What we know:
By secondary structure, the protein is of the alpha+beta class. It folds into two domains: 2-146, 2,3-Dihydroxybiphenyl 1,2-Dioxygenase, domain 1, CATH 3.10.180; 161-300, 2,3-Dihydroxybiphenyl 1,2-Dioxygenase, domain 1, CATH 3.10.180. The chain is 21% helix and 32% strand. The protein contains seven helices and 16 strands. The protein has helices spanning 15-25, 75-82, 99-108, 118-121, 176-186, 235-243, 261-270, and strands spanning 2-12, 41-43, 49-56, 59-65, 87-96, 113-115, 131-133, 142-146, 165-173, 203-205, 210-216, 223-229, 249-258, 275-276, 283-286, 295-300. The strands form two sheets. It has an eight-stranded mixed β-sheet. The chain has an eight-stranded mixed β-sheet with strand order 10-11-12-9-13-16-15-14. Strand 11 and strand 12 form a beta hairpin. The mean pLDDT is 92. It binds fe (ii) ion (2 copies). One fe (ii) ion binds next to strand 1 and strand 5.
Amino acid sequence: MFDRIHHAGLAVxxxxxxxxxxxxxxxxxxxxxxxxxPGGNLQRGPDPTDILDIPxxxxxxxxxxxxxxxxxxxxxxxxxxxxxxxxxxxxICLHSTNVADDVAHLRASGLTQIAAPPEQIAxxxxxxxxxxxxxxxxxxxxxxxxxxxxxxxxxxxxxxxxFTRLHHIGVVTADLEAARRLWCNVMGFRVDTLRTPxxxxxxxxEREHVRVLAxxxxxxxxxxxxxxxxxxxSGTARFLARYGGAADGTMHxxxxxxxxxxxxxxxxxDRGLELVGPxxxxxxxxxxxxxxxxxxxxxxxxx
Length: 303
Ligand SMILES: [Fe+2]
Ligand SMILES: [Fe+2]
């Protein structure tokens, strides 16, 4: 079973530029036990990337950049180029309590596994047991499955303490019921019926012209918020039309929890990030052009 988000995977053009946003800009720190090298971990498989891990609460932001050592770049580089050349949300990684069982379940549910080979999943080496599933079967979201992992980040990695956890990952979709089937029926999670009581139609967020379904993923790691554009004119609708592809969906934004939205907005503004739209007691938004190509929502912590 899946019990939490392990990380949000970001594809970025330049690792150090992205670190300036996602670590320095948000007051977070690189996890130097996971990614000890300043230039990132050098992952040299079929899609070579340099990786930095930045914990937030019990989840992480995983920055993936094309290699700077001359290794020919692969799919991550092409993805960044297709998304404007700076960066974009790339994949969602779920922590699994049993990779072999969960991979078998997802395959039986009709999802297409694109990595790793069966003998690798069956290996006794936990780091071999990382699986990927094709976005076309996951409403446009590339899905990674992470091996059972007791790594917990300590308080020292929480940085300035402005942002306390990943609140949710926003996924835009043309079909909320399909999102509910994927994340609940297949993945085993439940809709938060207090926050989003209207199961079929979602909750209308008038200010954003969207309907949403909130699906907590447990472990204080944040959840999924499935977002359906309510009309064709909203920015969310344009994003879906531009990047949704054949799956009619894709990752849309990251939301971080904070005790004080106004103070957090001032904090990121002072560090060069650009706010967009109104800042109120509950929400603020950071423009992607100042944040490595990624739309970021600041959400008031309510618990
Ligand atoms: Fe990943
Ligand atoms: Fe959101």
